Amino acid sequence: MRLPLNFTEKNYFRTTKARFFQAEDYERDNMVSTLKAMGDGIELQQRVAKRMAARNNPLELIRK
Fold first, then answer.
1. What is the C-alpha to C-alpha distance for residues 11 and 17, in angstroms, rounded to an integer?
2. Alpha helices, DSSP H only, in 1-64?
3. Residue 48 in contact with residue 32, Cβ under 8 Å?
4. Which of 7, 15, 16, 35 could join 40 in a cystine, given CB atoms 3.0 to 4.6 angstroms apart?
5. 17-38 and 42-54 helices cross at what angle (nearest 10)?
């Protein structure tokens, strides 16, 4: 079954695959420190760290 994807927000930009993966890696590597800088609680930081560690099966293994 196919479902349409509707994008209502127009605030997006074009990027390359390499730059997308670079941004994704940066987000992944800095998520807990970003939460810490925002002042979020240690419990949230621990949950996020655990969830990020579990996300170890990327859709694309070849990232070029």
1. 19
2. 17-38, 42-54
3. yes
4. 35
5. 160
pLDDT at 34 (0 to 100): 77
Q: Tokens 């969830």 belong to which residue?
A: 51
Query: Rg of the chain's alpha carbons, rounded to an integer?
Result: 15
- Tokens 């509707």, located at residue: 6
The CA distance from 32 to 53, in Å, is 11
Residue in the block written with tokens 């990020």:
52
Positive or negative: CA dihedral 45, 48, 53, 58 = negative
